[in-house]
Automatic annotation (TrEMBL):
Keyword Repeat: yes
Gene Ontology molecular function, alphabetical: 5-methyltetrahydropteroyltriglutamate-homocysteine S-methyltransferase activity
Reaction(s) catalysed (UniProt annotation): 5-methyltetrahydropteroyltri-L-glutamate + L-homocysteine = tetrahydropteroyltri-L-glutamate + L-methionine
Protein name, as recorded: 5-methyltetrahydropteroyltriglutamate--homocysteine methyltransferase
BP GO terms, sorted: methylation
Start and end residues of each Cobalamin-independent methionine synthase MetE N-terminal domain: 4-314
Residues given in the record as L-methionine binding sites: 437-439, 490, 605
Co-factor: note: Binds 1 zinc ion per subunit.
Gene: metE
Domain Cobalamin-independent methionine synthase MetE C-terminal/archaeal: residue ranges: 432-754
Protein keywords: Amino-acid biosynthesis, Metal-binding, Methionine biosynthesis, Methyltransferase, Repeat, Transferase, Zinc
Pathway(s) annotated for this protein in UniProt: Amino-acid biosynthesis; L-methionine biosynthesis via de novo pathway; L-methionine from L-homocysteine (MetE route): step 1/1
Length: 763
């Protein structure tokens, strides 16, 4: 029987209950028992939602208090020394959150490094491995959740991160060694896990190995065969799950692993079907990911069924159907979206609806003439036809403007060396100039004011004055602290993408379309529905007002085209390149309007630049070509004297440093504090020519670093980057922080910059 299953489900809740509970626990207003009860209720609700939608084998272990990689680090006992409980006590939730957020009671308890989960906007905590690493089961969350699900009467499939993927995602600390050497000592833990799950009555386990869609070194490819031959003797039927791309040169390897099933992503890589059929052993289940787990558009059921019918002819009951990947990357439920128009609503599917699509596809193979199947197919055909013909999709004037763009439109008129001389003379900034990345704390009062304005309870005049008051407060604080380049604080902005998307034609928005980014941080991606256009200025009034309140340099803040694209739910009917270039033209118009208003520094954030890289290197050049061109198109219309900044976070820069240089931003600010300035090695080896602001403190932790700690980081930076190229700034925006810690941290940062200036003068 063709079986409908899911690889994972969103954990945050329809109303972001997990976010609220986590933040309540961290703030001390919620007890640990209350937090755990929230988690228990959410898990029960989500299992039932999937079961009611028709999912027959439910994922367990996809829930996490912060992220699933961190959960595995706790389970495997991979806890850095600075976080290990005293006296050999077992790790607890306080241990987990200290690893994620930093230990507030220790000068050395900085949080673990955070980076992006493959090419998504989801983050994970990077495991830290040492040469003497010991593994031991020390976290029972998975087994407890399996017990919960079984007690509720569900048929379950526990989800674990595979041993090769877990090691690949980690980082070596201390003396250098090959982390693959740890495999032999890690594998016995998987045996223990499988044995305990078997004792609980589990039949299948899902082992996520998404690294199989990457360009793997030969040693890692060989390690797969060795590892799974050893795991073969352990109990349970094993489904190896791959996603986010195609297996390509790893197809034969994955198909031949001695496991009972294989899942492949046919949304991101449809070309791997039907080649997989010729390599799959006759005993093995094949799970086809045909419903997009990373976007919000309805599945074309006819198209998916054509593949399933062909597969069923070859596989019979060894065919399973699923979303392409975990639904973690999808909003929870479309049901509550009562403010969408009927046409747009009919085009969309969130996690619950995607489960329904998976279930109807499985039923269509078993009962092709069932009334529910025929009705679903008719609705799907109507949706696909209606969307293709809708006039809201295409704007001829946008397409004509894009067609007229030439290569010259994405080039500054003078090289950087000439521009920077003019900018320094124009701006008159000291060495090690200080600034922030853009946002200041989004207080409850700010959020309540925005909500009141949106709901019509506050008039435009009153709203504008309230936001201007916040701007004045931010400026006074920065002036008192002595920052050199100021920002207006972004009080009026709900999100760095949504705020701009709301002012562009071609976007649509949801009320409850939240997805988790990391920990308690959730984002609500806008949806690109059609061609994109800026009908009027978006930020000029706010930034101009801010500049009128100070004699210091005020920095205009925009979000770049690649980040706007990557952090939205994109269209599927045109290429990412076309969407990015349409966005670039819209942002270019805003840049030129800011310049005309007298703004001398304009920051165009491209936090997602590296995130957009294809997972296979062979596809990198094409992406990097259009991504860098899109940024330059947005920035290159300004005069030489106008300084263009960009910001990137959570990026390993070594392998894309030439493209970052090709963006030709005058100043780039990056996250470097969690890596202890290690990321600057790329800029040093490449001899990066432009200016750079390495982050000197981690804004994702409540810890306030001392001036001495920031000085230490800046000295490390100055050893790798010439002092005259260095700026001083936090890792990222301060939106999620509170004012007291923000004030203290920025005061320490300014003091650190002044100390470096003194040292520079003494040379």
């Amino acid at each position: 029987m063709t079986l409908a299953h899911s690889l994972g489900f969103p954990r945050i809740g329809r109303d972001r209950q997990l976010k609220k509970a986590l933040e309540g626990f961290w703030q001390g207003t919620l007890t640990e028992a209350q937090l755990r009860e929230t988690g228990r209720r959410l898990r029960a609700e989500h299992w039932q939602l999937q079961k009611d939608a028709g999912i027959e084998l439910l994922p367990v272990g996809d829930f996490a208090w912060y992220d699933q990689v961190l959960t595995h680090s706790l389970m495997f006992g991979v806890i850095p020394e600075r976080f290990r409980p005293a006296d050999g006590a077992r790790a607890d939730l306080h241990t987990l959150f200290a690893m994620a957020r930093g230990a507030t009671d220790s000068c050395c308890g900085h949080a673990q490094e955070m980076t992006k989960w493959f090419d998504t906007n989801y983050h994970y905590l990077v495991p830290e491995f040492t040469a003497d690493q010991q593994f031991a089961l020390g976290w029972d969350q998975l087994f407890e959740e399996v017990e919960e699900a079984l007690a509720l009467g569900h048929r379950v499939k526990p989800v674990v991160l595979g041993p090769l993927t877990y090691l690949w995602l980690g980082k070596v600390k201390g003396s250098d060694f090959d982390r693959l050497d740890l495999l032999e000592s890690l594998l016995p833990l998987y045996g223990e896990i499988f044995q305990r799950l078997a004792q609980q009555g589990v039949e299948w386990v899902q082992i996520d190995e998404p690294v199989l869609v990457l360009d793997l070194p030969l040693a890692w490819r060989n390690a797969f065969e060795r590892a799974y031959n050893l795991l073969q003797k352990e109990p349970l039927k094993k489904l190896v799950a791959t996603y986010f791309g195609g297996l390509e040169d790893n197809l034969g390897l994955a198909a031949g692993l001695p496991v009972d099933g294989l899942h492949i992503d046919l949304v991101r890589a449809p070309e791997q079907y039907p080649a997989i059929l010729d390599r799959l052993p006759t005993y093995k289940v094949l799970s086809l990911g045909l419903v997009n787990g990373r976007n919000v558009w309805r599945c074309d059921l006819d198209k998916a069924l054509a593949v399933l019918h062909h597969a069923h002819e070859r596989l019979g009951d060894r065919l399973w159907v699923a979303p392409s990947c975990s639904l973690l990357h999808s909003p929870v439920d479309l049901t509550g979206e009562d403010q969408l128009d009927d046409e747009l609503r009919s085009w969309l599917a969130f996690a619950v609806q995607k489960c329904e699509e998976v279930a109807i596809l499985a039923q269509a193979i078993r009962e092709p003439e069932a009334p529910a199947v025929q009705a679903a197919l008719a609705r799907s055909r109507a949706v696909q036809a209606g969307r293709a013909a809708s006039p809201r999709i295409h704007r001829p004037e946008v397409q004509q403007r894009l067609a007229a763009v030439s290569r010259a439109d994405s080039q500054r008129t003078a090289p950087f060396a000439e521009r920077i001389r003019r900018q320094r003379a124009h701006l008159q900034l000291p060495p090690f100039p200080t600034t922030t990345i853009g946002s200041f704390p989004q207080t409850p009062a700010i959020r309540q004011t925005r909500l009141a304005f949106r709901q019509g309870r506050l008039g435009a005049t009153e709203y504008t004055e309230a936001m201007r008051s916040e701007i004045r407060h931010a400026i006074r604080l920065q002036e008192e602290l002595g920052l050199d380049v100021l920002v207006h604080g972004e009080a009026e902005r709900n999100d760095m993408v949504e705020y701009f998307a709301e002012q562009l034609e071609g976007y649509a928005f949801t009320r409850f379309g939240w997805v988790q980014s990391y920990g308690s941080r959730c984002v609500k991606p806008a949806i690109i529905v059609g061609d994109l256009n800026r009908p009027r200025p978006m930020t000029v009034d706010w930034i101009s007002y801010a500049q009128s309140q100070t004699r210091r340099v005020m920095k205009g803040m925009l979000t770049g085209p690649v980040t706007m694209l990557m952090w939205s739910f994109p269209r599927e009917d045109v290429s990412p390149e076309v969407q990015a270039r349409q966005l670039a033209l819209a942002i270019r118009d805003e840049v030129l309007d800011l310049e005309a208003a007298g703004i001398r520094i304009i920051q165009i954030d491209e936090a997602a630049f590296r995130e957009g890289l294809p997972l296979r290197r062979a596809r990198w050049p094409a992406y990097l070509d259009w991504a860098t061109e899109a940024f330059r198109l947005s920035a290159s219309g300004v005069r030489d004297e106008t300084q263009i900044h960009t910001h990137m976070c959570y990026s390993e820069f070594n392998d894309v440093i030439e493209s970052i240089a090709a963006m030709d931003a005058d100043v780039i600010t990056i996250e470097t504090s969690r890596s202890d300035m290690e990321l600057l090695a790329a800029f040093e080896r490449f001899a990066y020519p432009n200016e750079i602001g390495p982050g000197v403190y981690d804004i994702h932790s409540p810890r306030v670093p001392s001036t001495e700690q920031m000085i230490s980081l800046l000295r490390k930076a100055a050893q790798r980057i010439p002092a005259e190229q260095l700026w001083v700034n936090p890792d990222c925006g301060l939106k999620t922080r509170a004012w007291p810690e923000t004030r203290e941290a920025l005061a320490n940062m300014v003091a650190a910059a002044r100390q470096l200036r003194t040292e520079l003068e003494r040379r």
